[in-house]
Write a structure and sequence with these properties.
Length: 302
């Protein structure tokens, strides 16, 4: 196996072949300036974190679940998974898809159970309709008040655009990708693993709306009116619920990409780079949303 720089992919075979009477422990890539340990370059694909699904030989199902959970701890994730670890593209794409399916199934179950319990609690007879729980669970990412034909709120569309534009914004930063010459596999790996928490935070908006509808029925059952909900909780609900998921997404993306830049790529000014990436991506996604969806629809929910 020929040694290559883990960050830029530069072939270091010539450097290794120049050794005569001694083998150095550390080295520096002449192409991107990365300092590395030669031992890490020779260990190859057999090396990886104990929780990593990418490098699992056995117990793959357990490692898949552990990998999905680790994505919610950005600092520890990128401190354990390093550039020297072999990149298995099919594996991390499968982990991302499995995580998205798990979040969607969890949301579908939540949207099915809450209306079902609401009917059991509110109804005066043991007979109830299965129509509302099923309709809520079949299309978990749609909203009744969202514009057709997709039925998805513009704020969610903008957040999805921004999530995929963050790695692309890395290109325009002169002190990051262009100077360090980071290979694209690292960016694809970071993007894939970041999708699951982003999807979960966006699901909070739909789950919160379902709980809000259920709260009105519970209050009516207890107090015979919706006065408490309208006076105490309505204003908080209208202000916090639409912006809470987006705020969580932006905060998570900052923590994720700053840890990726600092701990994984080992680049300086990691927080500044992550903040610049997020500002560029969200600015472009907002402009893209205004162009594709329309000014009135985007500004109504963002």
């Amino acid at each position: 196996m020929s040694p290559t720089c883990p960050r830029c992919g530069y072939d270091l075979t010539g450097v290794a072949s120049s050794w005569t009477n001694r083998c150095p422990l550390t080295g520096t890539c002449s192409e991107c300036g990365l300092e590395f340990t030669w031992r890490d370059l020779w260990r190859g694909e057999a090396w990886g974190p104990a929780w990593s699904f990418e490098h699992a030989v056995r117990h793959r199902a357990r490692r898949l679940f552990c990998t999905i959970l680790m994505t919610f701890r950005p600092r520890r994730f990128w401190s354990s998974l390093r550039m020297e670890h072999w990149t298995n593209t099919p594996r991390f794409l499968f982990a991302a898809c499995a995580g998205l399916v798990l979040v969607t199934l969890t949301l579908m179950g939540f949207l099915f159970v809450i209306p079902l319990l609401d009917q059991l609690w509110y109804a005066n007879t043991p007979f109830f309709s299965w129509r509302k729980p099923i309709e809520s669970a079949v299309l978990p990412w749609t909203f009744t008040d969202a514009p057709p034909p997709l039925g998805v709120r513009p704020s969610t569309i903008v957040a999805v655009f921004a999530t995929f534009l963050i790695p692309a914004s890395f290109v325009v930063l002169p002190t990051s990708l262009r100077r360090a010459k980071v290979i694209s596999d690292h960016l694809w790996r970071a993007l894939a693993y970041s999708l699951v928490p982003v999807a979960l935070y966006l699901a909070i908006e739909k789950a919160g709306g379902t709980l809000a509808e259920s709260a009105t029925s519970i209050e009516y059952k207890w107090f015979g009116s919706h006065i408490l909900w309208q006076t105490v909780f309505a204003r908080w609900y209208r202000l916090a619920l639409p912006f809470a998921p987006i705020t969580l997404v932006v905060l998570y993306q900052f923590l994720w990409w700053s840890a990726f830049t600092g701990h994984y790529l080992r680049l300086p000014h990691a927080r500044s780079v992550a903040a610049a990436m997020i500002v560029i991506a969200w600015g472009l996604s907002l402009l893209l949303g205004l162009f594709l969806i329309g000014t009135d629809l985007v500004m109504s929910t963002v």
